[in-house]
Design a protein that fits this description.
With 239 residues, the chain is α/β, with parallel strands linked by helices. The protein is built from 9 helices and 13 strands. Helices cover 38% and strands 23% of the residues. Helix 2 crosses helix 8.
C-alpha cells in the first residue's frame, strides 16, 4: 500500500511538472495590430491574445520575449526562446531553417503606400529587413531601401528617402487612415507569402504539434475568427 501511495504521489508530481511547463514565445513587439508593446510595457495585440489562448489550451505556462526582427530566427535556433509568433509569413526559404505550424492568419496582400497616388513604385521602395516584401522589391526592378523596423520604413517615405513603402496591407491600413491624407495607397495590392504561422526549431516537433492542434481547434470552434474580427475590424480575414 505504501509503495502504491508513493507511486501515486510521484505521478501527481510528474503531472504537475508537465502542466507547469514554461514555453517562451518570441515576438517583435513593434508590428501592430499583430504585436506591440502597450503603455504598461507589456506585449499586446492579436498575437498576444492568440498565444495566450493556445498556451491555455495546451496546458502550458507561456512567457513573452521581445526580439528585434532581423535576428528573430537566429535567436530561436540558438535557444533564446521556444517559438516565434510575430506576424511571420510562411515561406519555403524560412521553412528550410525552422518548422512552421499551419497558418493562423490566411495569405494576405501586401501594399504600397506613398505621399501621393502617383508615387513611383519602381523608384526607391522602403521595406523592413528580412521580410517577404524586402525579397520581392528587387524582382520588380525597383531600388530596395531596407530598414530595421516598420516605423522606420514609414518615416523614410515621409522624409522623402523613399518613394513608397511596401508592407502588409493590414499593417499599413490603420496608419494610412490615421495620417489625415498625408499617406495614401499606391497601385494594386501584391499577393505574397503563404499565410502567417508560428515558427519552431526543427527538433521541437512535439511542442509544435501542441500549438498546431490548438490552432486547428480554434478554427473549428470559431474563436480564431472572433479574434481576427476583433483585431482587424476593417477587413477581417476568415477561416
Amino acid at each position: 500500500m505504501k509503495k502504491i501511495a508513493l507511486a501515486i504521489a510521484a505521478l501527481a508530481l510528474t503531472s504537475g511538472l508537465a502542466a507547469a511547463q514554461t514555453v517562451r514565445l518570441g515576438t517583435e513587439g513593434a508590428y501592430p495590430p499583430y504585436n506591440f508593446v502597450n503603455d504598461k510595457g507589456e506585449v499586446d495585440g492579436f498575437e498576444r491574445e492568440l498565444g495566450d489562448e493556445l498556451c491555455k489550451r495546451a496546458g502550458l505556462t507561456c512567457e513573452w520575449v521581445t526580439n528585434e526582427w532581423d535576428s528573430i530566427i537566429p535567436n530561436l535556433t540558438s535557444g533564446n526562446y521556444d517559438a516565434i509568433i510575430a506576424g511571420m509569413s510562411i515561406t519555403p526559404e524560412r521553412d528550410q531553417v525552422i518548422d512552421f505550424t499551419q497558418d493562423y492568419y490566411p495569405p494576405t496582400a501586401s501594399a504600397y503606400v506613398g505621399l501621393s497616388a502617383d508615387a513611383n513604385i519602381k523608384g526607391t521602395v522602403a521595406a523592413q529587413v528580412s521580410t517577404i516584401q524586402a525579397a520581392y522589391v528587387p524582382t520588380t526592378g525597383a531600388t530596395l531601401a531596407e530598414y530595421a523596423t516598420p516605423e522606420e520604413t514609414i518615416a523614410a517615405v515621409k522624409s522623402g528617402e523613399a518613394d513608397v513603402v511596401l508592407a502588409d496591407y493590414d499593417y499599413l491600413a490603420p496608419i494610412v487612415a490615421e495620417s489625415g491624407g498625408e499617406l495614401v495607397f499606391v497601385g494594386e495590392r501584391v499577393p505574397l507569402g503563404g499565410g502567417v504561422g508560428m515558427g519552431f526549431r526543427e527538433s521541437d516537433k512535439e511542442l509544435k504539434q501542441k500549438f498546431d492542434d490548438g490552432i486547428t481547434a480554434m478554427k473549428a470552434d470559431g474563436s480564431l475568427n472572433a479574434l481576427l474580427a476583433k483585431w482587424f475590424p476593417e477587413n477581417p480575414p476568415k477561416y
